[in-house]
Amino acid sequence: MARPDLNLLVTLDVLLAEGSVARAAKRLRLSPSAMSRALSRLRETTGDPLLVRAGRGLVPTPRALELRAQVGRVVGDAEAILRPAERLDLARLDRSFTLGNSEGFVETFGPALIARVGREAPGVRLTFVTKPDRESTRLRDASVDLETGVIGPEIGPEVRTQALFRDRFIAAVRTGHPLAEREEPARLYANGRHIQVSRRGRDAGPLDDALQAAGIRRDIATTVGGFATALALARASDLVATVPERHTTAARAGMLSFALPFAMPEITVSLLWHPRLDADPAHRWLRGCVREACAG
21-28 and 7-18 are packed helices; what angle lies between their axes, rounded to 10 degrees? Predict the structure, then answer.
């Protein structure tokens, strides 16, 4: 039996990440026809169509979904093996990293992270961008180097993850809220008007499912896209914001915060990165910096 062309692993990894012959060709700097020929060879080698047409796009077969995580790890490990081994010199490191974070993360953990990076590697620049969703597309296409957030079903199976901390939801209102002086927190929460947080503009979510189980229904006055916006509104009005506690420590300064009057599961905030950067010394150092900033 002839040995398979191992170069096809890189092509397969990119094809499964992009889900498009044209985008994969552009990423690998090949012509679309050359990429189509490579896909044909992959189909012949694996005995599976891998990507099939659905409308105007391509969707992966069950076999392709099984291979995606495995291929990503193999390619990442191969790149690490072939990369020249060198001792990381932080004092001379000249590099930029882009981090994708939810609202509140930078305000709360950014100062400690930036201070440490500045002390240890003054040539390193950090760019913080807001996460538009929980999908791992930006990790795959290298538009971000590292992300933090709650792991959901949208995260690709090849993405590496590590838990950073547990968080719980609490309520926050402005100091001097008219109900705060005469109502217990439970009644304040039940009787107050609320800010719903939804990146997709939904008027209900998991929080409202927990409320319904406790026999509570929120009077939602408005819906916003992030927790920082919700706190800004609550600080300037009599509305109640429900936010994750640790994520919003800095943004809640000077506000009245209290525990929710019903059971709500905690969330786990994790660190996420693509396996191609798993063995990169500078990236490994940065991951350690983020972990310690969150632990502090």
Answer: 130
Structure token digits, residue 29: 């700097």
Same domain, 224 and 287: no
The DSSP annotation for 129-153 comes to EE-SSS--HHHHTTS-SEEEEE--T
Listed in sequence order, the residues at least 6 apart from 167 whose beta carbon sits closer than 8 Å to its beta carbon are 244, 245, 246, 247, 266, 267, 268, 269
Q: Are 43 and 50 in contact (CB under 8 A)?
A: yes
Q: How many helices and strands in the chain, by DSSP H and E?
A: 10, 12
pLDDT tens track for 146-163: 999 888 777 777 889 999
Length of the chain: 296
Q: Which single residue is written with the structure tokens 């409320």?
A: 211
- For residue 241, what are the CA distances in angstroms to 203, 214, 231, 259, 289? 14, 18, 6, 12, 31
39 has pLDDT over 70? yes
Instruction: Note down the domain range covering 15.
Output: 7-82
Residue 2 in domain: no
Is the Cβ–Cβ distance between 213 and 265 less than 8 Å? no
Q: In the chain, how long is the greatest CA-to-CA distance?
A: 82
